[in-house]
Amino acid sequence: MKSTELTRETKILYAGSESKLPIENPETPPIYHSTANIIRDMDDYDVASTGGKYYYCRTANPNRDGVAEAVSYLEKGEQSLVCSSGMAAISSTLLSLIKPGDHILASRSIYGETIELFDNILKKFNVEVTYSDFTNLDNVQADLKPNTKIVYTEIIANPLIEVVDIGSLSKLAHRVGALVVVDSTFTTPFAIRPLEHGADIVIHSLTKYFGGHSDITAGSITSSNEMIKKIYSDYLLFGGCLDPNSSWLMLRSIRTMEMRVTKQFENAKKIAEALAKDPHVRYVNYPTLTNHPQHELAMKLMPKGCGAMLSFRVEDDRDKVNAFMHKLNLVKYLGTLGGYRTSIAHPATAFRNEFTPEKLKEMGMEEGLIRISAGAEAIEDLISDFKQALTVFDTV
Ligand SMILES: Cc1ncc(COP(=O)(O)O)c(C=O)c1O
C-alpha cells in the first residue's frame, strides 16, 4: 500500500518523522528523545542488546552517554553511569555492592539523606554501619573491621568544612580489602580528583556544580570499567537513569563548568577572608584560612582551590539570623548549593530530623551557624551584601 493510500488515522502516526534535508554536523548535539530505536531483525537485536547499538533508552542513550564521557574525562575515571539524582547514584552504588552481613564505615559528616539511606534502608538488609570522625585517621583505623566492605566519605564535610585526608584513608581501607567510595559533590574535579588519591568510586550530585544553574537534578558514578560493569546491571534494574533532555542540558552546563567553578572558588576564598574580619562574625570555616584545623592538608590536597562552600557563625539568636536572611538583597536561602548565584543555608534547621538539638550542638551546628555556597557574582557586590546584612547583629 502506498503512503498516499493510507488512512488519515495511520498517516498522522508517520507524517513529519523524517527530515526533509540532510542534517550534517550540528554545532550542538541533538536531543535523542526516542525511548526506542527500530531493530531491523533478530540479528540486529543481538547486536543492539549486547551493547553494539542504541535500542532502548533506559539501557543506553546518546545524550546520557555524552554526559558520562564528560564526567569520566573530568574525574579521570574509565567509565561513568549517569543517574536521575545524586541519591540515585549513591543508592545504586551501595545497593549494588553490598550484601547482608557486610559492614560500612562512614564519615559522621556526610549528606543527611545518605545517613538516612544507611539507617533506614541498608540496615533493613542486615548491613552494619559505623559512623566515625574521618578527620582523625586513628578513629578510622580503630573502626575498620574484617567485614568492612565500603569506606564511605565526602572530602569536604558539611557544614563545618572539615577536610578528609583521602590518600591516607584509602590506604587504610585497602588494607582490609574495603572499597573507598567518595561523594565529591562539594569539591568537584576542579578541586580534587579522588580516584587519583586511591578512591575506588567517585559519586557526584550533578544537581550542584556540574549542572550549576539550579535547573537539573542528576547524579553520577565514576570508576574502572570493571567496577562500572558490576554496578551497571543493578543500575538498570533500579531504573534511576537520567532522561535525554536533562542529559542534554547537563552536557551544556559542563562546557562552562570550569569557568563558573573557578570563579566560585575564588569568591568563596574572598568571602571567607572578608567575613573573618567582620566584628559580627565569631569564626569562619574555610580551608584556605590559616586557622582552619586542616589548612595544611587542604592546601596539599586542593592547591587549585578548596571548593565554594564555607560556613560562619554569628550570634545564636534565631530572630536575628532570620532578620539577617531577610536583610540580604542578593543572596538567597536555598535548599541546594552549587548554583551560579550565591546562596545560604541553615545547617541546624536542615539536620534537625537527623539529630537531636544536643547532638547538633555537639557537632558544631549551632543556631548561629550559616552555610554559604559561593556563586559567580562580582565579589565586591557579595561582600557589601553580607556586610550590610550583618548589621542586624549590632549590639546597641
Ligand atoms: C553532598 C551531597 N551528596 C548528595 C546529595 C544528593 O543529591 P541529589 O539531591 O541530586 O539527589 C546532596 C544534595 O544536596 C549533597 O549535598
UniProtKB/TrEMBL annotation:
Q: Which GO terms describe its biological process?
A: transsulfuration
Q: Is-annotated flag, keyword Transcription regulation?
A: no
Name the reaction it catalyses.
Answer: L-homocysteine + H2O = 2-oxobutanoate + hydrogen sulfide + NH4(+) + H(+); L-methionine + H2O = methanethiol + 2-oxobutanoate + NH4(+)
Matches recorded under InterPro entries: Cys/Met-Metab_PyrdxlP-dep_enz (IPR000277), Cys_met_metab_PP (IPR054542)
State the GO CC annotations.
cytoplasm
A molecular function (GO) held by this record is: homocysteine desulfhydrase activity
Q: Which cofactor does it need?
A: pyridoxal 5'-phosphate
State which Enzyme Commission number(s) the record gives. 4.4.1.2
Q: Which UniProt keywords apply?
A: Pyridoxal phosphate, Transferase
Record-stated family? Belongs to the trans-sulfuration enzymes family.
- Protein's UniProt name: homocysteine desulfhydrase
